Amino acid sequence: MKKKDTKKSGLTYERKNFWKEADSEQISAAMEFAEAYKKFLDAARTVRETIDFTTALLENHKFTALPAKKGQKRVFSVFRNKTMAIAILGKKPISEGFNMVAAHVDAPRVDLKQNPLYEDSSSSLACMKTHYYGGIKKYQWVSTPLALHGIIFKKDGTAVNISIGDKDDDPVFIIPDLLPHLARKEQYAKNLADAVDASKMNLVFSGMVEPGTEEKEAAKGYALKLLNDAYGITEADFLSAELELIPATKARDAGLDRSMVVGYGQDDRICAYTGLMALLDNMDKTPERTVIAYFSDKEEVGSMGNTGAHSIFIQDFVAQIMKQNGESNDSVNLRKAFMNAQILSADVTAAIDPNYPGVHEKQNAVIFNCGVGIAKFTGSGGKSGCNDANAEFTAKVIRIFNDAGVYWQMGELGKPDEGGGGTIAYILANLGAEVIDCGTALMGMHSLYELCSKADLYSTYRAYKAFLESK
Ligand code: MN
Ligand code: MN
């Protein structure tokens, strides 16, 4: 007797490989989608730059900042230049619920300290002290070209935007790593997490001095002169500034087949971008339910503060669009809107890495090229700190994706005892909404060179589009 082919019985679950199953039209659409995505990653390099980029795009598409004129159905709101929400008002009252894709636009990075500049007495170089932001592996940030981005406010209150290191002829900055010849005690004797101490992540900023100078700390003095000439700033202006170091590299195709994108900040701008593109697809029609894209800040440090997902901003935004829609936005109605809402917590997940497959349990992990990853829960250990999406909603999201022909897969973030991570899912679920984690799988998450599959990038966009348009 021939062995029964269980794969074709229709009884087994098997995820589908996009490249294997998709037609040529879908494959070229996926490739094309990635081209615009790389441009977005190169333009939206920081939280503020992502908000600015998105605002400009929305204004081009005739969206209006709230408060808007009566009848305007495409609206958005930016709060403190670091968080924003965008809505297209639907046919049904918002109190009956809305469909939201919620991503975060901050990414792990290395900030400059508030009083960063000093002249190192041992090397006579002008250096900058740093303080890392979010969960980085510190050793990745040394001996790699870095760009300096941020904002400085001068004494008169005027803002100076800084962006050095991205253009081909810009200088870049380096935090030098210790040479292997002399690293035996300082680094090799330590464990990986301690081998690069945060206090040794000082940036070499500049080295020249004024010709013939007798000045003490002449390298620092010369650096300040250059800064003053270029931007009109003084050392005291650093104290209030927000300056960050990010990889001075552009997003690029990866792999011989160009099937992947490598670039910084894909956690979580990949979900922000795909969510935004999915929302813009609804621009010329009136969706059934109001659709919202929410970009939060500070996710990498706990979503606190007035721009993090814990803040009042998103509730206030929904209250504002209820008013815009001519509905009562009293607290009962606002609570009702959230309790009837369905939300995708649009954040990345971890793909199986060929070098470390052991941290995943393969059957319940996400792999490249099989579509957007759904995670019923995140958290660590015994699902600690997770939003465990309800089965009813999980099944509904799967139905939405299947009906739209979206490539998707179910997967957890690593084996239970390996570590773990969280998203903003639980914060929004605390408001009563149905929320599930759903995003693209990355390899090398939180590194300077995060990797994604173009099949999964495109599938994420298609998933968000189907979800936003669902009833
Ligand atoms: Mn994330
Ligand atoms: Mn992250």
What does this structure look like?
With 471 residues, the protein is α/β, with parallel strands linked by helices. The chain has two domains: 13-107 and 264-469, Aminopeptidase (3-Layer(aba) Sandwich), CATH 3.40.630; 109-247, Aminopeptidase i, Domain 2, CATH 2.30.250. Helix content is 28%, strand content 23%. It contains twelve helices and 22 strands. The chain has helices at 18-21, 24-43, 47-60, 184-188, 192-195, 218-231, 266-280, 313-324, 331-339, 391-403, 425-429, 454-468, and strands spanning 64-65, 74-79, 83-88, 98-104, 109-120, 125-133, 146-153, 159-164, 203-206, 242-247, 252-254, 260-263, 290-296, 342-345, 349-350, 372-375, 379-380, 408-410, 420-421, 434-439, 441-442, 450-453. The strands form five sheets. The chain has a nine-stranded mixed β-sheet with strand order 1-2-3-13-4-14-20-16-18, with helices on both faces. Helix 2 (24-43) crosses helix 12 (454-468) and helix 7 (266-280) crosses helix 12 (454-468). The chain is globular and about 75 Å long. The mean pLDDT is 96. The structure holds manganese (II) ion (MN) (2 copies). The site of one manganese (II) ion has 6 residues, from helix 7. One manganese (II) ion binds next to helix 7.
Report the average pLDDT across residues.
Answer: 96
- List the quaternary state of the chains: single chain
Structural class: alpha/beta
Number of helical elements: 12
Residue windows where pLDDT falls under 50 for at least 5 positions: none
Characterize the overall form.
globular
**What is the CATH architecture assignment of the largest domain?**
3-Layer(aba) Sandwich
Number of domains: 2
